Amino acid sequence: MQYLTSEEARSLELKANDIRQSIIEMLTEAGSGHTAGPLGMADVFTLLYFGILKHDPKNPDWEERDRVVLSNGHICPLLYATLAHAGYFEVEELLTLRKLGSRLQGHPHRGALPGIETSSGPLGSGLSQAVGMALAERIDNPYSSKFFYCLTGDGELNEGQIWEALMLAGKENLSNLIMIVDRNGIQIDGYTKDIMPLEPLTEKFESFNFDVQEVDGHSMRALNDAIGKAQAVYSQPSVIIAHTIASKGVDVFERDFRWHGNPPGKGPEDRVPKGEQAKVALEKLRTLAGTIEAQDS
Amino acid sequence: MFANHLQSNLSSGEVEKVPTRNGYGEGLLEAGKRDERVVALCCDLTESTRTEQFAKEFPERFIQVGIAEQNMASVGSGMAAMGKIPFIASYAMFSPGRNWEQIRTTIAYNNSNVKIIGAHAGVSVGPDGATHQAIEDMAIMRVVPNMIVIAAADVHEARKATLAAAKHEGPVYLRFGRSATPVVTTPDSPFEIGKAQRMYSRDESLENKVGIVVTGSLLYNALMAAEELQKQGIGTSVLHMPTIKPLDTVALEKFAEEHGALVTVEEHQIAGGLAGAVSEYLSEVRPTKIARIGVHDSFGESGEPDELITHFGMDVDSIVKAGKKLIK
Questions:
Q1: Domain boundaries, chain B
Q2: Rg (CA), chain A
Q3: Of B60, B77, B109, the CB nearest to A132
Q4: DSSP chain A
Q5: Of B26, B52, B69, B266, which residue is the catalytic one?
Q6: Are strands A190-191 and A186-187 parallel, antiparallel or unpaired?
Q7: Closest residue of B to A110, CA-based?
Q8: CB–CB of A254/A260 below 8 Å?
């Protein structure tokens, strides 16, 4: 979007809240899966699918669509919920997540469900695939207006393959590539600064010939501006470091790495008992939805 | 006797020798001319994998990835997602050796139309030694769903296999060697993915008989062993299986039925490759006594290619001995 009016921003925030509620419901029903990442990246996904992307939910294979490569496949409850709310398939199907025979595999499988551009889960390989797509597009159409978005975690940046892909993207000046890093500061075993420090991250990306922006990953306007700027960069690939809060939207889950890989009902109990976790999360989100207002007018 | 489409000088001891990877270079260039969707990727081994000619002819369709095999596999997957037919080349030790998971998940699980070129496979890599001698590659590729696995016998077959891989929709692993390999087939010899070929037929007047099943670079040794066994009074046939996945089970079962006992021959570990595929299938449908020629659970080492083939028991004499032992 060129510019987000405050009403548009409000509408996107409400949509993100709906998607967060779906995430809680599907994870609770599945009884396993990841909570922190999907809740944390819900604003980024909502903006992409409801504000940025060229795509057609009724024609998911439309050749001219932008491509979204989800590299950290474990946050797929968010991808599935966003696709369903965007109209790729019925929202009811979300409750089949992780069940035998479901199109909603525990990690995404290309071809299983409309809108899934690649299978992912083993970390670090999505950026390479987005680079491959961007390279292929440039061979066919150097003046293409398609963008290739790759979403990664921050813990995922521990993987060596990421840096192989960054080198190639930088060498090839892939200006149609936009990487978005979920900088929530946590990974399974703890805080990223303790497990494997990444800073100075901006300088690292810059040294690989990337245009780098750091942005509040929960501000629709800031994200929208950053993606717009990234699209306008014409001589190098872009990365947006989206500073997010793990489990954003459910304050009693927020920032706690123990919510990385657990669903409501199986998370840490020191703030909410297991049996109450899903109910409390939904209540928190519904209350939050009631407070979302246009930021100015 | 030799199949009539083979080279006519096979018994002369003066066969021409050419590396199979040369056939890849020719086939890739030809595939690139036939289909503009063909692209080539390489990890800093452009000359030795014979990707060079393609890169010169189609620089805009060649991606130099640098020494980064994991990245190459997934970049290939991404290009295939956009409709390209990527050929990704390195040494088999590094691709599929180092990047197996990327091949499994981003190529095979996606059913991506990527062709994986494992050059310098086998101990015949020679002086570089065990670190560079891939003798596990067919095993790790054969267990991956959607994957086709082909080991080319010589330069002509390598060229045909490359062209066939370009036409096949889906992932293919092609295995080539470094050293010069006897040219056994001709440009007219048949090649089809998934089809075995009878390359030598036994003298039916001989009462004792044995069948040799071979894949890849040792086809010539298998044929020479068959000649020798026949001289020694054992009717011997050679079934060449360039495709070890999917296995030509119809031809294999018929061959086992006809000969009763088999020798498998491959420049690979005896576990998981051709011997594995043949034993697994026959043990279900027609339990057959099998002697396995290949590397027996050890690493390779430095040496000249022919020395190593003999050292690891894959030479003509070793095949002959294995055949004779089956008859006793």
A1: 10-14+191-327, 17-182
A2: 18
A3: B77
A4: -----HHHHHHHHHHHHHHHHHHHHHHHHHT-S--HHHHHTHHHHHHIIIII----TTSTT-TT--EEEESSGGGHHHHHHHHHHHTSS-GGGGGGTTSTT-SS-SS--BTTBTT--S---STT-HHHHHHHHHHHHHHH-TT----EEEEEESGGGGSHHHHHHHHHHHHTT-TTEEEEEEE-SEETTEEHHHHS---SHHHHHHHTT-EEEEEETT-HHHHHHHHHHHHH--SS-EEEEEE--TTTT-TTTTT-GGGSS--TTSS-TTTS-GGGHHHHHHHHHHHHHHH---S--
A5: B69
A6: antiparallel
A7: B110
A8: no
**B293 within 8 A of B317, measured Cβ to Cβ:** no
Q: Give B91→chain A minimum CA distance, Å.
A: 18
pTM here is: 0.96
Q: Could you tell me the sign of the dihedral formed by the alpha carbons of B207, B208, B214, B217, in that order?
A: negative
Closest CA–CA distance from residue B269 to any residue of chain A (Å): 28
- CATH topology (fold) of A6-291: Rossmann fold (3.40.50)
Is the ipTM above a cut-off of 0.85? yes
Q: How far is B89 from chain A (nearest CA, A)?
A: 15
Tens-binned pLDDT, residue by residue, of chain B (328 aa)? 999 999 999 988 889 999 999 999 999 999 999 999 999 999 999 999 999 999 999 999 999 999 999 999 999 999 999 999 999 999 999 999 999 999 999 999 999 999 999 999 999 999 999 999 999 999 999 999 999 999 999 999 999 999 999 999 999 999 999 999 999 999 999 999 999 999 999 999 999 999 999 999 999 999 999 999 999 999 999 999 999 999 999 999 999 999 999 999 999 999 999 999 999 999 999 999 999 999 999 999 999 999 999 999 999 999 999 999 999 7
Strand partners, A177: A148
Residue range B17-182, CATH number: 3.40.50.970
Report the topology of domain B10-14+191-327.
Rossmann fold (3.40.50)
Question: Is B284 in the active site?
Answer: no
Give contacts of A132 with chain B, Cβ < 8 Å.
74-82, 86
